[in-house]
Amino acid sequence: MSLIPFDDRDGFIWFDGRLVPWRDAKIHVLGHGFHYASLVFEGERLYDGVIFKGKEHTERLFKSAETMDFTIPYSQDEINAAKAEAIAANKLTNGYIRPFAWRGSEQMGVSGKLNKIHVAIATWEWPSYFTPEARMAGLTVQTGKWRRPAPDSIPCHAKCAGVYMICTLNKHAAEAAGFNESLMLDHRGRIAETTGANLLFVRGNEIHAPIPETFLNGITRQTVLQLATRRGYKVIERAILPEEMPLFNEAFVTGTAAEVTPVQSIDEHQFPGREVTKVLMQDYDDLVHGRLKLDAAA
Fold first, then answer.
1. Domains of the chain, with CATH numbers?
2. Which residue in 152, 182, 193, 146 sits closest to 165, CA to CA?
3. Active-site residue list
4. For 63-120, how does the pLDDT look when each residue is reduced to its tens digit (9 = 90+)?
């Protein structure tokens, strides 16, 4: 499959307050965000012309920036309007939205207080994160070498660039070994998440969810747990150890990109069940396409 480079596409990107042609959205190579990972971002989905929980994503973007000790030079309403402007300019009905903010190139060094804060919003067509075949069969997952750090050693509840470096390393290793994904353990050896999505397990009528102490409590994760509660499943958030995996019949991941996707296996452990996962997959699909109103149904 040939890939379309992300720096050579038609369309427009909202960049520091205005739309610019896609190929002209450039930054300097000595930017602080590039060298020191002082960048925050969001991943959002556009369904039938509507961003799913777009305001919640914007709120999180601002909280992430605050955690990274910088202020986004626009209001949340302005960012929400800019997302709509970028979507309209690119004539999208279904797709992916990537707002991000970073420190510029005025100051080079660990300290970056003098750097200007830049903001950009890109949006493009993007189908399911995993192929349809992989999604229906379930993901194959390998436990990764790199672990989620302790919460007092990295801003784990901010969606910022630096926390994804170890995800890339684990993901590459898993793909090289023939797996779809990698399991991230935390610094204590407990199950955390995968490299780009939250991980949940099913036992009977119970949904078991790792506590988001060392990783992002995803907006999709929160939504799916609400859907599970609505269905009458018992949601249990707790520490889960790798040796507990044989106790579960189903496993699945949640995320803006991944949506709800079953897991076939983690290392040698198989998860043959799909019953609960398929129910939540359908409920989530109905929700994002407006066929289900969660607040009214909850």
1. 12-124 (3.30.470.10), 132-297 (3.20.10.10)
2. 146
3. 159
4. 999 999 999 999 999 999 999 999 999 999 999 999 999 999 999 999 999 999 999 9
Distance CA 65, CA 83 (A): 18
